[in-house]
Amino acid sequence: MKLAFLVDSYYSGGLGTISHVIPLTRELKKQKIFVDVFSFRFHPPIIGKVLHTISCGFKKLADYDVIHSQEGAGVFIRHKKVEFVAHVPPVPQEVLSNLFFRTVIKSSIKTSDHVITPSYYTKHCLEKGGFSAEKPITVIHHGIDRDIFKRDASLRIAIREKYKLNGFVALTVGRMTRRKNQDDILYALSQLSGITLLLVGDGPERKNLSSLARKLSVKTLHFYNVPKKLLVGLYNAADVYLHTALLEGFGFPILEALSCGTPVIAYRTADFDYVIGDGGYLITQGNIKELRDKILYLKENEYERKKLSRNALAQSQRFSWSEVARKYIRIYKEVAC
Predict the structure, then answer these.
(1) Residue 233 and residue 223 in contact, taking contact as beta carbons nearer than 8 Å
(2) Domain containing 101: what range?
(3) Do residues 232 and 305 both lie within one domain?
(4) Residue 90 located in a structural domain
(5) In sequence order, what E strands does 227-295 have?
(6) From 59, 157, 216, 324, which residue has the greatest number of CB atoms within 10 Å?
């Protein structure tokens, strides 16, 4: 089978939605699927998507058995097509981006044969928001590469020594946007002592978060362009992973943290109850007091941290890229017939 994979970003250092593209295409190739990837990595999201879809319109995509369109990247393509949608953004602060994204997704779904989402939450949003266009929607949760994301005691010691991390360490990973809502973490930590927060990522809210951290006297260490090895080291160095996004399609960093044995505290959204399992705590969105109390409880309770760490490692075993790829292939074969 020949598969054309259309995506607007394809590089190993990405965070968020694109994090699954490389391991998925690699696993598809292992399972004897011929994959060509077409991407526009260096353009801004909106311009890149337009240029990408126009460019793909001139390629001989008819030579492929199936087109995999990543979040509207193949919106103008009329061929046997599977559309992947991570999330439908109803974030008020991102009006223009939302309008463009929703229009593209709705149009691309209309010309697709099957839709794949990484969570039942996203599937529900598509159906409720009138996006589904009576197309079949299949939920396939992402996998994790446990050869990369794994617990490593020596790496934990090395990272903590290198960055002089003493005491309790919290970590959050993701683009700095209103949707990711890292502000709540800073407010929760502002009334706790002896905690260092590692912030990994970049984005439009970067300056605001830095300013807020200084204002609230929260000790932070910021990492921008993080290579994979360092990212794994940071997961290992952390005592807890915090995730306070208001909307997620899947929440990839949560699974990465679990795979490194790092307990998770997250706001309840997407399929986090399924992903986190007994590897951490889910709390109500916006409940900063509850977030603060859970952080403090883990900080003061080593036995609970160790228990959750064991649970996290066990939970991550449920997510395998080889099984994920097999599920994708079944859908590709159905569409190709």
Answers:
(1) no
(2) 2-143+320-336
(3) yes
(4) yes
(5) 240-243, 264-267, 280-283
(6) 324
